[in-house]
Q: What sequence folds into this?
């Protein structure tokens, strides 16, 4: 058996590392939340409150209207031949 003092110091070292890791995780989590909030605000600021952002938004809407029908014309024959679950498996495997 190991001496009691060695076991106690090993436990206290593990507890200290756990406390530091916990604080580090908390700080990283808070930093991530702050950065994500700033990114959402910046995205809103650029795309909602500026004329350029409104033009980009309108271009995306126009492209979606145009692309929806053209994409379906290409995708429909493929989907008739290949099953949807098979496509899902291929997509998951590609990730």
A:
């Amino acid at each position: 058996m190991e001496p009691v003092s060695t076991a106690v110091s090993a436990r206290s070292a593990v507890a200290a590392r756990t406390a530091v890791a916990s604080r580090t995780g908390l700080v990283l989590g808070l930093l991530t939340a702050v950065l994500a909030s700033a990114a959402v605000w910046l995205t809103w600021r650029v795309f909602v409150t500026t004329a350029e952002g409104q033009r980009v938004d309108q271009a995306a809407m126009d492209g979606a209207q145009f692309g929806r029908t053209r994409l379906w014309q290409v995708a429909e024959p493929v989907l008739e031949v290949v099953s949807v679950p098979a496509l899902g498996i291929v997509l998951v495997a590609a990730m």
User: Anything to note?
Assistant: The CA atoms of residues 48 and 94 lie 35 Å apart. The chain has a mean pLDDT of 83. The chain has two domains: 1-49, 51-95.
